[in-house]
Request: fold
Amino acid sequence: MPYDGQGGDVTRRILHVDMDAFYASIEQRDNPGLRGRPVAVGRGSGRGVVAAASYEARVFGVRSALPSHMALERCPELVFVPPRFEVYRAVSAQIHAIFRQYTQLIQPLALDEAYLDVTERWEPYGSATAVAECIRRDIHDQTGLTASAGVSYNRFLAKLASGQRKPDGLFVIAPSQGEAFVADLPVEKFHGVGPATTRRMHGLGIYTGADLRSWTVPELRRHFGGSAQFYHDIARGLDHRPVEANRPRKSLGTETTFAHDVADWDRLSATLKAIVRKLAEGCGQKRIAGKTVTLKLRYAGFQTVTRARSAPFPVAEEAVLRQMALELLWSFFPLEKPVRLLGLTISSLVPCGEGALPVQMGLFESQA
Reply:
């Protein structure tokens, strides 16, 4: 079995399939009047933000998470449509059914993208690239949508590859090309290197994969802690992470953005109770429970703060979650400033029945 000489197996065949402007493309598919026009999925007034943008809108700099008023400033002709998540989930289910025709080793990342390991399944098709082409064809034939795909010998490179020829493209990074491909790439393009890490790397004179490759693991560890080995490896085109089929969910959460900043307890607590109810329903539907509840507040000015509280056993009951959440909210009073967003997440998840017990009130452990 061939290796890359540094302990990395280059015989794996990994695909990253990413739908093109998924939400917006579905809206354009279902409403012919939107085709060819700049479209944003989201609320186009008040405190709305863009959930997704069509490629016609992206030309103007409209991107997901952009406040709606800024999106309209950049593109006055922008058409906002409300999200239809039940439709997006149904189309996602169609797409994953197509994936399962080619492999059972599927790791979803979101409704619109996933890793697929076709190492054991590519031979009948001639190559992993041919498998990717078949999947893209089936998606188009069955949903009317386009997908881009990356093909490589590990997850990191497959995801990089899928973004090279969007939309409706296919790109392959062969084992002989991986290290050279990464060498010329700006570190901000690396999946797994976010804006904060990019700034730290730039401050250290690390701008490209080649720059990153010149650093040893001990040197990287002094600046990046536990991520040092990962950064060391990806700079060499290596990624040992397997495609994790049926990967356990790590957290579940929901949030609300207010039309106007809110500072009074009654309004915030009422909103939080509604969020808790929705979160509890989600836990019930997915049959999961969790030990840690995290409250997120975003103040006017976009400063974001969080506080967490843990129970001794996994919980999912609405009453317990509500008291944990309200105690966390009260800990922020008096407020530093009015609140524009309120969110709640439950983590340290287990399937219901695995230690999920009722919890006596007042036994929660704070985590500032």
Summary: The first strand starts at residue 14 and ends at 19. The domain at 251-367 is CATH 3.30.1490.100 (Dna Ligase; domain 1). The first helix runs from residue 22 to 30.
